[in-house]
Specification:
3 helices, about 200 residues, about 15% helix, seven-stranded mixed beta sheet, elongated
């Protein structure tokens, strides 16, 4: 099978807020040479970063628990346990964004930040990519209580747990967040936490 030719032939902005939603008209031309026009909604709110910080001496990891509005529409717990994450602000590098988010949400300074690639979380409708990072931390790097920014209504709970518990959670169908599961797998593949950085 050859790849079809794809072309955006129309665009209509249907919503502009924290996200933008565009309806795209995509002409898809297959082997028969006949283009078919399809409508698809595309959601854009920028690109993000996520980190799983690990204290290698105490063998602990730090996550966050926060409410996620879409989960209010499902049967899932809206208070999602996940890796620290956030959007990359204009003018920031992904690494700068990751350090900022860790300080805001977790109240810690990251050490040995290691890029582990990036992922597209929902390519059927989102343009967002998430840069994935592992890092180390220790109590000497604590700068605040964390919890996120009050004016953004984040109300973030910091959850620190032993690595063995984290690995058990990842295998128990309790963790639902994809970026978090990927980062745990990346950590596990390293074999030990001293390889971070």
């Amino acid at each position: 099978m050859t790849r079809p030719d794809l072309a955006i032939t129309g665009r209509h902005r249907t919503f502009s807020g924290w996200n933008t939603v565009d309806e795209l008209i995509v002409a898809v031309t297959g082997d028969d040479g006949v283009p078919v026009e399809l409508k698809r909604e595309v959601i854009d709110h920028g690109h993000a970063v996520a980190v799983l910080p690990v204290d290698p001496v105490r063998r602990m990891a730090m996550l966050v628990r926060q409410w996620r509005p879409p989960l209010l529409e499902t049967d899932d717990d809206p208070f999602l346990l996940e890796a620290c994450a956030g959007l990359i602000d204009e003018g920031e590098t992904p690494e700068q964004a990751m350090h900022r988010e860790a300080e805001e949400e977790l109240g810690i300074r990251l050490e040995n930040l290691e890029a582990c690639g990036r992922t597209i979380m929902s390519p059927g409708c989102l343009t967002e990519t998430v840069g994935l990072y592992l890092a180390t931390y220790n109590e000497a790097g604590r700068i605040s209580d964390g919890g996120g920014l009050a004016h953004e209504g984040e109300e973030i709970e910091i959850v620190e747990m032993p690595l063995d518990d984290l690995f058990s959670l990842a295998c128990s169908n309790v963790l639902l967040d994809a970026k978090t599961l990927i980062l745990i797998q990346m950590l596990k593949l390293r074999g030990n936490t001293e390889k971070i950085g």
